[in-house]
Design a protein that fits this description.
The protein is mostly helical. The protein has three domains: about 190 residues, MFS general substrate transporter like domains (Growth Hormone, Chain: A, Up-down Bundle), CATH 1.20.1250.20; about 55 residues, no CATH class; about 230 residues, MFS general substrate transporter like domains (Growth Hormone, Chain: A). Helices cover about 70% and strands about 0% of the residues. It has a two-stranded antiparallel sheet. The longest helix has about 35 residues. It is globular, with a radius of gyration of 26 Å. It is found in: Cell membrane. Keywords: Membrane, Transmembrane, Transmembrane helix. This is Major facilitator superfamily (MFS) profile domain-containing protein.
């Protein structure tokens, strides 16, 4: 005869077991960062990304105060250089940031970019002439160009792809805030206080972020460093500046004659020299083998076309609302709320879908198709659409705006090896920025041509001056100008929609990236590895080290790896950029 003895569990034991289970289920922070350090870093990173998003557009709404203060005689003609100087420096520096990040570790380069942006902002706030302000804007752009890219590289280094997809919500909210806040903040701030506050505002925010990131962020520092291709950096910077200046000159002259051709010839010559250099360099700045990759190659095309046909559209739509719908520039941000809502919705959606399914391609194809449909819909209806219809289409445009380039970048980062994470990220950003700049100019030329032919009878042939001259026209000519501008905007949107069909075909041909498979193929040894081992108890640290040594011995016996100091000793690199065991790196 047997007796069943049922052990009773006391409430204290139940609570202990629950606490133990919760502790096991909770994933440790990356690189041993404490909860408070993770929180401080994420807050600083979001603040930095906000500054990067705002600073490119906020100055456009402060034209008159800056010109009135610094150069009343010629300021209007020279003002575009404030935007051009920032853009040239930010774009040309992208490839160099990627190589420096891969060579010296992203933490140091992140702090350097933030420090440069901080210094540039302080200098801009103290400028006493327009020439000084243009030069200081270039310094600010040199740092600002790295803020967004380096933030993306750091987050990709900290978290594996699946975890990173689940953290995408904040990025969408920031992009949405940038779309609305840029046009709304610059004008009132410069008129009611001073245009200098546009730059002064950056100083305390960037300063606190610099201190916070320096204290909180812990990333691996490479034991061996790659050489930086200085000649390649100079060549790609020269090619970029020449081509973008050629695009700017084309936008002003609307033809490929006169001063336009030398810029393009010089740009093509420098680009050819850069390609030749990359083929011969031992450590190329932008390895051309990247373009053989079945994920990176189509993603780079998507980045460029997305920037060309999508990211430049909000500026044109702001002008449309101002001229055709009569919305003041101070209030135009309110009418872009549907666009911002679309951006937020797609970021909320794509992160959850990718986290749940692991698949990326279907989300990319869906957002690209939505973008093409929304832009085509706006092109066909913008001339006489009711406001509610515009709002719906703008919401769908926001879905495309927030999805196409962001998901393409996520896929390239996820598929990249750790030693190329920086180059892959900044090359993708480089393609997007080039596309946005060139697209803004080319689509602007399409708008100008269409407007000039439709508004000839009104006496106004330049859409850039239409808003300023509209109030002085009689009712009939004012109606003609508004109709012409609406028709020209429609033409521009249909051209952009055609390009987005090319993007859709590219997305359909893109190789699938499955973050579940990537997670299975590589462990994430960085997670839970303490960057501050000095604060651990000696016995606990010794036990942990002993367990790691036993693990390494078993792994090495079963799957021998090259020596960590060997040039090819980084075997087992995680596709998420988290790094292997024994890769010669330490937390710092």
């Amino acid at each position: 005869m047997s007796t069943d003895v049922t052990a009773e569990t006391t409430p204290a034991e139940t609570e202990t077991k629950a606490a133990t289970k919760a502790a096991k289920e909770k994933k440790p922070n990356p690189y041993g960062m404490s909860d408070i350090k993770v929180l401080v870093f994420m807050v600083c990173a979001m603040a930095i990304m906000t500054l990067a998003l705002l600073d490119g557009s906020i100055i456009s709404s402060a034209v008159l105060p800056i010109v009135r203060d610094l150069d009343p005689a010629h300021g209007i003609d020279r003002f575009p250089w404030l935007i051009t100087a920032y853009l040239l420096a930010a774009t040309a520096a992208q490839p160099l940031y990627g190589r420096l990040s891969d060579s010296y570790g992203p933490r140091r380069i992140y702090l350097a970019a933030l420090g440069t942006f901080l210094a540039g902002s302080a200098l801009c706030a103290t400028a006493h002439s327009l020439t000084q302000l243009i030069v200081f804007r270039a310094v600010q752009g040199l740092g600002g160009g790295g803020l967004m890219s380096m933030t993306l590289i750091v987050i990709a280094t900290l978290y594996p792809p699946k975890s990173r997809a689940g953290r995408s919500n904040a990025g969408g909210a920031l992009i949405a805030a940038g779309i609305i806040a840029g046009p709304m903040i610059g004008g009132p701030l410069s008129e009611n206080l001073s245009w200098r506050w546009i730059f002064l505002f950056n100083v305390p925010v960037a300063g606190l972020a610099l201190v916070g990131v320096a204290w909180a962020l812990r990333l691996p520092v490479k034991g061996t460093r790659q050489k930086v291709d200085i000649l390649g950096s100079v060549l790609i910077a020269a090619a970029t500046c020449a081509l973008l200046l050629g695009v700017k000159a084309y936008g002003e002259h609307k033809s490929f004659s006169g001063p336009v051709l030398p810029y393009f010839y010089g740009g093509v010559l420098m680009a050819g020299a850069f390609v030749t250099r990359q083929l011969k360099a031992a450590d190329p700045l932008m390895p051309l083998t990247l373009f053989k990759d079945k994920v990176f190659r189509p993603a780079a095309i998507l980045q460029f076309v997305g920037g060309f046909a999508l990211l430049s559209l909000p500026v044109f739509f702001i002008n449309y609302l101002n001229i055709v719908r009569g919305v003041s520039l101070d209030a135009v941000g309110l009418h872009l709320i549907p666009l911002a809502v679309g951006v937020v919705l797609v970021f909320l959606g794509w992160g959850k879908i990718i986290t749940r399914t692991g698949k990326c391609k279907a989300v990319l194809v869906t957002t690209t198709a939505t973008a093409a449909a929304a832009v085509a819909g706006l092109g066909f209806t913008v001339t006489d659409a009711p406001v509610w219809e515009l709002d719906v289409l703008l919401l769908l445009l926001g879905v495309g705006l927030g999805g196409v380039t962001s998901i393409a970048l996520f896929m390239t980062q996820s598929a990249a090896t750790a030693d190329q994470l920086g180059v892959v990220t900044t090359t993708s950003r480089f393609a997007t920025m080039l596309g946005t700049t060139i697209g803004g100019t080319v689509l602007g030329a399409v708008l100008s041509e269409s407007f000039a032919s439709a508004a000839g009878a009104s006496g106004i042939k330049d859409p850039d001056t239409a808003a300023a001259q509209l109030a002085g026209l009689d009712a009939a000519r004012r109606h003609l100008v508004r109709d012409a501008f609406a028709h020209a905007t429609s033409t521009l949107l249909l051209v952009a929609a055609g390009l987005l069909l090319l993007a859709l075909a590219t997305a359909l041909l893109m190789k699938e990236v499955d973050v579940n498979i990537l997670a299975e193929k590589s462990e994430d040894p960085a997670v839970g590895r303490s960057a501050d081992t000095a604060t651990q108890e000696p016995a606990e640290e010794a036990a942990r080290q002993s367990e790691e040594d036993d693990d390494h011995a078993r792994t090495d016996a079963e799957h021998p790896l090259p020596h960590p100091l060997h040039p090819h000793g980084a075997a087992g690199l995680g596709a998420d950029g988290s790094g292997p065991r024994g890769d010669g790196r330490r937390a710092a």
